[in-house]
Queue: 2 jobs
Job 1
Amino acid sequence: MSEKKLHEDQKYIDGLLKNNSFIIQAIYDKFVPKVINYIKQNSGDGDKAQDVIQDTLITIYNQASENKLQLTCPFDAYFFILCKRKWLNELKKNSNKEVTINEEVLSKDDEAQELAFETAVFGEKQVLFTEMFQKLGTACKDLLTATFKIKSMEEVAKSLGVTYAYARKKKSLCIGKLTELVQKSPKFNQLNN
Amino acid sequence: MEDQNYILFESYLSKELPQDEIIAFESRLKNESDFNQAFNTYKELASFLEHKFENEAASTAFQNNLKTISKTHFEKQKPAKKVGHFKLWKYAVAASIALLIGIFTFNDSPNPTFSDYNNYEAISLTVRGGQDELLKAAEDAFNNKNFITAEIIFGQLLAKDNSNKELQLYRGIALLEIDKFDEADSLFSRLSNTQSVYKSKAIWYSALSKLKQKDFAACLEILKTIPKYAEDYKEAQNLINKLE
């Protein structure tokens, strides 16, 4: 991936990451109308389109800030495929029917397709991880929250009234517990294959 | 997977293993697929958690800003309501009502309102280094008039460094914007009792807070304490004239 040339549309990714209102506005002006049309033509409406677009942009933002998203294709294609995929999944969820992604778009821009796929998997993993984190016991949730918010393990131990060694050990066991929950979920195996 | 392995993952990721153990660890990664899979999931989860909590404030600020832009965009899309057959006489009635309102308002000479004074210049906080991301998020939220978000982030920043008077002032303004008057007033009054460059600004804003609460007498009283050298002195005199 690193050898591929960065597309000039990376500016949209960087703008989202910096919470730049002008860039967000530009995305809505330039790329969103096409998505709204598509959703409206495929059993959706304006409100549904608004949600799909918002969720998609949040996923892109999250991936960019955690994984340093490098755009190697036009933003337009990448964003459209992502929104479309999300909308089709939404339809599938509500109708219990198998919905497949249009082949025409699949072959149109492989690079965009590949990148959009990575982002979509990232987004679905985030949802799954958040869900599993909620399943942890309160002690683990509190410890992990403190660990990643405070950063210094010494301070975490102090704030929880335990020793440094104990806090450290507990941290690895809690992430371990989360690892097990995630690995056991069928959704995770689907996403990883 | 055994507990011991998770402890090992953590030590490896935080680079605390001695060289010989690193070699042994990496060879297990190559040869034991369960071990490898568990490690990769562990690593992914650690990165997820780190990001989730570290960027909470910036992420909330982004989402709020996005929602505002999205809402405006989609409201523009909705077709305007049809005017229908609006007969001429209705225009006449509307015009007379407008005229009456105009006369009443003119005679009444309305009191000045808070919204005449809340045009803030864009603030810039990110030159100091350090907690850059959070500061940037606060700055963006404030400049985009997302005062709910701004107030939350200022609160978080002040939890780390409660002595920063500039942040205290901005937090006060954000509180004032979202009508949390008690908190705003007590912040401004604390600030106006300190010897800092923000002293007279704080007095000015505590007057504006009274104005927003329509307590004109209290507003006047505070305005009169703004010293001549203060940046807002002229504006304050103006407001005094309108109120008296």
Job 2
Amino acid sequence: MNTTNAVTCRKVDKIFEQGELAVHALSDVDLEVKSGGFVCLSGPSGSGKTTLLNMIGGLDRPSDGEITVAGQRIDQMRMSDLAELRLQHIGFVFQAYNLIPVLSARENVEFVMQLQGLPAHERSQRALAILDQVGLNGMEDRRPGELSGGQQQRVAVARAIVSNPALILADEPTANLDSATAEKLMELMRELNAQIGTTFIISTHDKLVMSYARRLIKMHDGEIIDDIQQDGRDA
Amino acid sequence: MLITIAWRNLWRNHRRSLIMLTAIAIGLWGMIWMTALMRGMVDQMIDDAINTLSGHVQVHAPGYLDDPSIEHSIPAVEDNPQLQQLLDSSQVTAWSQRVRVPAVIRSERDVYGVTLIGIDPEREVGLSFIADSVNEGRYLETAADKQVLVGRKLLEQLETKPGRRIVLMSQDPDNNIAERGFRIAGVFDADLQATETGYVFAGIDTVRKMLRMGDVVSEISLLGTDYRDVDGLAQEVQTVSDYGETKTWLQLDPYMASMLNVMDGFIFIWFGVIFLALSFGLVNTLLMAVFERTREIGLIQALGMQPGSILFMVLVESLIMLLIGLFAGNLLSWLTILPIRDGIDISGVSEGLEWAGMSSTLSPSVLASDVLLANSIVLVLGVAASLLPAWRASRKVPVEAITRVWQ
């Protein structure tokens, strides 16, 4: 397994200005995640785990500190360069509203590949294969409104993994799922992690998700308060 | 895929999109339909002015227009072979020469001042209104016809009728009174009452004899192929008849010339007003669509779509809406203009507008350039108006756009 860092955060601060009040969402966060890691960020609401995911995904900029993803400093990157980095290296799974509602399941999965410039027949083949892999065979032409919450989340996972990104960031991916579906989803993620070596960073409250993590990082008030290796492997 | 998303997004809110499409279609229809009617009205006025004896180009003796007397005459066309050759060329669709002098007409009952016009009846066919306007009695048969044509209104004023005699009186070249009795051959009708009361037509040879003026004429009138393009023809005529003054209809009728310019300016203002109203709806619709899709835009940004592509996607959505609206607007224009292409009766209001040269029938006139201009304005300015919502969509910070999703 590759042991270089997929993500490195150094002294990352994030301050939100709310009127005259400055809220420290992240304070001096130092974090290294090796390539192929399977990491969970846990903590109560407002602990900063989503903010940290936003920073790592280049969706927001830190107030201070350095963030390196896939070997590139992203904290000062231009918007267009960040978009390119996300397109080529990062897959996202959000808690809800994951899919583009006017596109079918297959088209949603093809979307990222199309942005990457893959030819139509290859896109279609890979999308159908991955939808089959996540158990959505026969539902590829349904639009999000015609799928259940769990099915939508599996489409989102399919979209996140179909182009084999080095890093997948997932924010509360099981929040809207029943326990059986959540377990299947986590099995799928673990399988990808094991087979392809995709790095996963997952923010969650869910103990089930935490139980799958090889490394559990606990956050509180914008700080990392605990960092636990759960299976003895380097994550 | 961008076009697919844009197309499907357009129909997510059917009602709003249909309202906007209807607004675009009606806006374009308003531009084209109104312009067609206005153009038709001006064309009709210009046609009437040209048909009422002016032609596209006229040649007179210098000073004739200020003093239209027999003293200001020019040689007949037959005496100028170069001019004859030009008038018989394909550049000229019709021409005639006339004697045109102020005169007095007298019946048993009344006396009126008129303009006596000596014409070659055959040459006036296709050149002026008179050949097609005799609705009672007969048209003049030859240039030597010894009878006259009078307008219906003048006939009423003189309290006479076809077949009866009237006397016409004018001045000969020696400033002596020249008069002659004529029998009324026919009565003509004209769009303008002033034409019916102002002109009396007789054979040119008969008028020449009456006025003892020899073979000279007062004016030569000709029609080119397009009333908007007469300067070149006028220049050629002037070159071969340098003894006279050649003028285009625009110079002979400055009121009509200014009407033409005013019309062009009015069309621009009219298009601008309609588009302004339209643009508010368009910008509002797109801003609402962008606002509603803030989270989606954040999502596709998170997935790696470039800001420029998001701008392009919103513009494509606007472009699709504009193109459908323009298609519907053009179709609507065609469907509403087609049934009235032969004209609509506006006799109820035309009498009051006769001073402006309006006739009782209004036929729409659709110029390809007007249709193209209306479509271009809506399309180009519509896309320009869409830039604001598109730009706002493309500048969203992903985390702000999807905040409601993540937290």
